[in-house]
Amino acid sequence: MSAAVVESHDDPQAPRQGGLEVWAPSVMPPVSRGPLTDEQTLAAAFRVLAREGFSENMAGHITWQRPGETEMLVNPWGLWWDEVSASDICAVDEDARVVRGRWDVTPAIHIHTELHRARQDARVVVHNHPYHVCVLAALGRLPELVHQTGSMYLDDMVLVEEYGGEIDTPLRAQELAEQIGDAKVAVLASHGVIVTGADPVEATYRAASFERACRLAYDVLITGGTPLELPRSAMIGMKASLLERAAEVYWGGAVRSLLRAEPEVLA
Q1: Which of 64, 204, 209, 240 could pair with 73 in a Cys bridge, judged by C-beta atoms 3.0 to 4.6 Å apart?
Q2: What angle do CA 169, 170, 172 make, to 5 degrees?
Q3: Considering all CA atoms of the chain, what is the largest pairwise distance in Å, rounded to the nearest integer?
């Protein structure tokens, strides 16, 4: 271990350092042979998350409101996430009107427009109904953080406890955004999940890992055993490492795998 990463353990309650503060890679493997357009990047995010089970195929959006812009890139109604390609991506304005693209977008897009309006940090908003998230949503509970990857969600989850039906108007979406507050992940009771991120890399990793976290939590729950407690002091540093380093590694590997199997996503 290099001197740069040696830490004092005199105080076990002191938060551990993590992320780029501890170590940063000097070089990373490329994601693709050339740079991806924004539409190609978002199309890849849809297919990556579909592979992770983050998809109920008649539902859900990912929106990307790029810095300094009000319009959002989004998937159209009628395509499953695992068949979205770059040329299918639409753009909507801040009031959910389609301004570019060949397909339509459902009123459920207001979930996204109102979160983008309320949250400057939420550049990407992911919403769908992945299975293991929905199991816990049906129970009206957040996942217990039983594995180190769950550190990513420390202090960043909220449960919206009351099911209110379809969110299909700006007013209903505004009310939902108020309930979510500044949480990066919101589990919607008897519905699904909303995940936010600063960019597609962070949001995709957070979403994919959340479905896995819910599956782990449920599998531990049904054993009837008591999981080991993760020390908060250790989780703080791990959270930084996951978001600042692991997200990029996850994205790179997931997209390289996708492009080998489904190169048409870039079309």
Answers
A1: 64
A2: 70
A3: 61
CB 31 within 8 Å of CB 251: yes
Do the domain assignments include residue 10? no
Provide the phi-psi class of 140: left if phi over 0, else alpha when psi is between -120 and 50, else beta: left
Q: What is the DSSP letter of 117?
A: H
Whole-number Å distance between alpha carbons of 239 and 188: 23
Domain hosting 236: range is 34-256
Note the pLDDT tens digit of each residue in 169-187: 999 999 999 999 999 999 9
CA distance 67 to 198: 9
Distance of CA 183 to the CA centre of its chain: 12
- Cα–Cα distance measured from residue 206 to residue 196, given in angstroms and rounded to the nearest whole number: 8
**What are the Cα distances from residue 29, in Å, to 34, 35, 67, 241?**
12, 13, 26, 18
**DSSP element (H, E) containing 188:** strand 185-188
Residue 2 has pLDDT above 50, yes or no: no
CA torsion sign for 80, 81, 87, 93 is: positive
Q: Tell me the helices (H) and strands (E) count for the chain, helix number first.
A: 7, 8
The residue assigned the tokens 């068949």 is 83
